[in-house]
Amino acid sequence: MNPYQKKRRWKFFLLIFAILIGIASVFYTDSFVKKMEREEADQFHLWVKIQERAMFLYDNDDYRVIVETVRANTKTPVIMIDSAGMISSFFGLDSTKTNYPTADTKLSYDSLYFVRQLRQMKAQHPPDEMNFFGKKFKAYYRDSFILTQLRYFPYIQMGVIFLFLLTAYAAFSSARRDEQDHVWVGLAKETAHQLGTPISSLMAWTELMKSKFDAEDDPLIAEMENDIKRLEIITDRFSKIGSKPILEDHTVYIVISDFIRYFKVRTSDKVKFSITGDEQVRALLNVPLFDWVIENLLKNAANAIENEGSISVNIIENLAKEQVFIDVSDTGKGIPRSKFDAVFQPGYTTRKRGWGLGLSLTKRIVENYHSGEIFVKESELGKGTTFRIILKSSLRYEPTTA
């Protein structure tokens, strides 16, 4: 299992664990809320009984204190209606909307407030029947403010936890990405530094061999010089990682065709190369780094072809968006759709000896240094894959007017 798959598995397990914690919190809070609901219902039933007997209990000084205490400790809003459906009394409602204003207060009577409250109470709980001197009444109540808060508390809690986890994940991901960038940059620059000395020595040795053995036109020396130049290009690529490269205006077709000409002689004869499309479109490129992009794509395409096959590059200009599309297609074994994004992750590889860094570097070069995009445009198992690079065209077009 590669590191990317391990990371995905751990993320999945942590997500499941967080969901289980959230579900457990909701169930626990729900059981607590139901317990409070029962207690409020019992308190309401007791209040109803006290109200029914209040007239008789007020005649007794010993019970009058009990009645007042029960009424004072009742926080549940209550509305009583008569047999005709008219509100006869209420308790625990907002006094700023239920009392008439006076010269000393700034109260405002809201008749619709009672209608809304009664509708809400009827929707929440069934009424209790009351009997006052032969007249029947119904008492409705709604949940207290604290109970309502507790009912929504687990969802608010989960939302806050989710936002915290999301913020923490973004912060840690950013820190990890910065750390990876520092590792990439440090490794690349150290590699370029280490290659510098032997390359200089090889250049000196070839000059010495040409002068000592009079081998100015020796083809072997010429090939050695080509390989040394190749090493210089590779060193230049590594040295540019981490610093802002200089982008210059180039014809995309010429840059890619020059590299294909170099690359195909170092690949199996069973793989056929072709380049088609717009030969005039231009873009701002850093040629050594962009060659690295094309090299990685062509290497992956060649490795995906097990026997005979073909690799084609098609260059398309999107005039409407002033963009350049570069499609690199092969007739290899293809990529599963579920792995379209995974192929660009560091460490992802299907080869036994691969490091899984080629496409990750490719994505960084295209997006970070050329402000472009790269993605798997399409792929089918057993038939091949097409990668698409999108670059900003350096040509500007003015709309024509009649």
UniProtKB/TrEMBL annotation:
Keywords: ATP-binding, Kinase, Membrane, Nucleotide-binding, Phosphoprotein, Transferase, Transmembrane, Transmembrane helix, Two-component regulatory system. InterPro entries: HATPase_C_sf (IPR036890), HATPase_dom (IPR003594), His_kinase_dom (IPR005467), HisK_dim/P_dom (IPR003661), Sig_transdc_His_kin-like_C (IPR004358). Its EC number is 2.7.13.3. GO terms for molecular function: ATP binding; phosphorelay sensor kinase activity. PROSITE patterns: HIS_KIN. It holds the Pfam family HATPase_c. Residues 190-395 form the Histidine kinase domain. SMART domains: HATPase_c. It catalyses: ATP + protein L-histidine = ADP + protein N-phospho-L-histidine. The chain crosses the membrane at residues 12-29, 152-172. CDD domains: HisKA. This is histidine kinase. The lineage of its organism: Bacteria, Pseudomonadati, Bacteroidota, Sphingobacteriia, Sphingobacteriales.
